[in-house]
Amino acid sequence: MQHAVGSPLPPPHQPGQGPAVGWSPAAHHPGRPPGPASAPVPPPAPGLPAPVPPAGPRHASMPPPPDTTGHVPLPPGGPVGMPSPPQAPAAPDPAGTIIAVLLIGPAGAGKTSVAKYWADHRRVPTAHISLDDVREWVRSGFADPQSGWNDNSEAQYRLARRTCGFAARNFLANGISCILDDAVFPDRPVVGLGGWKRHVGPGLLPVVLLPGLDIVLERNAERTGNRRLSDEEVARIHGRMAGWYGSGLPIIDNSQLDIPGTARMLDDVLARSIASPPPW
Q: Contact 111/103 with Cβ under 8 angstroms?
């Protein structure tokens, strides 16, 4: 079910907040007089080596020691822009392009299966980010909306979407494409596509996967656990998803397609979307 997207996280640390870099002990202990910059070293006694002056504290202006933890610095994850199509006359090749895809569809449409297959068979590194998988990271205290929609389940959906968006931006910043899947409703544009656009960026390419109702019911019947819905709920969701027709977004009816065939169709649709991005 589609619900409101959460507000952004608090801004990062700003200058002037918290302890300043290069602080001096005297500044934090006004009652203690500052020590001498360097104490005189007495001359050595006859026949004895010269005393070595004690090592003083690091000067405040000295740079910090290098990071020796072995962490690999990563580029910051920013909003992803629209992918640039290759120069004409060559047709866009989505299989070799770093892109972000949002696969939309009702429960039982095959979003997760198609997204995994598509990610597995690309020529460039690609990640699959499933909203349901991230939402189910919560083990103790998991708020299952099938038990009744409440503030906890809504908050967990918002948190999962934000987490997916951050993950997608980090993957893209490091040269890894990604495909996300979610049941986004056309009658909630602000918190649906608008939310994903805020989380990932304007370059996100949405594609709707919408087979017939009989196919969706059949696939839903094969599901287990909290991902299996009642037939009435599946029919209601499918009916709302039909509102994507006429929206301008590309729609794939995979009623008669297997998973590899749907993935090939997805590549064709994405090639057109790269060449002429859909308005959304």
A: yes
